[in-house]
Specification:
Blueprint (H helix, E strand, L loop, with lengths): L1 E5 L6 H10 L5 E4 L10 H10 L8 H7 L8 H13 L2 H8 L4 E4 L4 E4 L25 E3 L7 E4 L4 E4 L13 E7 L4 E7 L3 H10 L4 H9 L2
Parallel strand pairs: 1-2, 4-5, 5-7
Antiparallel strand pairs: 1-8, 3-4, 6-7, 8-9
Helix pairs in contact: 3-4, 3-5, 6-7
Length: about 220
């Protein structure tokens, strides 16, 4: 089984469209959270996941938009949360509110979280990848750091597909991964997209210009 893996779309429809067009033929797609936030196309990105019935977990930005959160946001992130709350429909917000913190998929072989299996808001960087995180699964998928990486252990694979909509690993191209569940094995992918269009949309929406600036830097 071939599984497309995405995370941290963050309202960047231009990047998401590029990823879905570039993605090779897969049997299904899963998402490790943060469909909304930062960039202004929150509703379009939610609908892309809903219409494809993509199994998705709740990210910290999703949680903030859908309700209350104790996660500390900077001014850019906070402004985007408010923008999402103002522009999403009730149906779109309800979809976010119903997302679980964790999913166990494909007969329990794949565990999907946003930040960490024990704390959805905890950053788990590649240096923190450990076989103990698998907790019986063959593959652990997580996001939150916006850093693309994976590591293979005897017990299985810990992977982060990177961020579709706001990479932070120095590469501004949209990130995703493909998981071959039979092997299992992970292939990491990057695809260029129209960053200028996303930056213009950020400005047109009245969001902080720093959001667009970061897109070009991959930070």
């Amino acid at each position: 089984m071939q599984i497309g893996v995405v995370s941290d779309i963050h309202g960047n429809k231009v990047a998401l469209d590029a990823v879905l067009e570039d993605m090779p033929a897969v049997d299904t797609v899963v998402c490790a959270g943060d469909v909304v936030g930062y960039n202004p196309w929150h509703g379009a990105c939610v609908d892309a996941m809903r219409e494809r019935s993509v199994p998705t977990v709740m990210g910290n930005h999703d949680r903030a938009v859908a309700g209350e959160t104790t996660f500390g946001f900077n001014s850019m992130a906070g402004a985007a949360v408010e923008h999402a709350r103002e522009t999403l429909t009730d149906t779109q917000q309800a979809w976010l509110a119903d997302l679980p913190d964790r999913r166990r998929l494909f007969d329990g072989r794949v565990s999907v979280v946003h930040g960490h299996p024990n704390d959805p808001d905890r950053y788990t960087y590649p240096r923190d990848f450990d076989a103990r995180l698998l907790d019986g699964a063959d593959v652990l998928v997580l996001g939150h750091t916006h850093v693309q990486a994976h590591e293979e252990f005897e017990e299985g694979i810990v992977m982060n597909p990177g961020s579709v909509g706001q990479p932070r690993d120095g590469d501004p191209r949209a990130a995703y991964a493909v998981l071959d569940l039979e092997t299992p094995a992970v292939s990491e992918h990057r695809v260029e997209y129209d960053i200028g269009r996303a930056q213009q949309a950020v400005d047109d929406a009245g969001l902080p210009t720093g959001i667009g600036d970061r897109l070009a830097e991959g930070q």
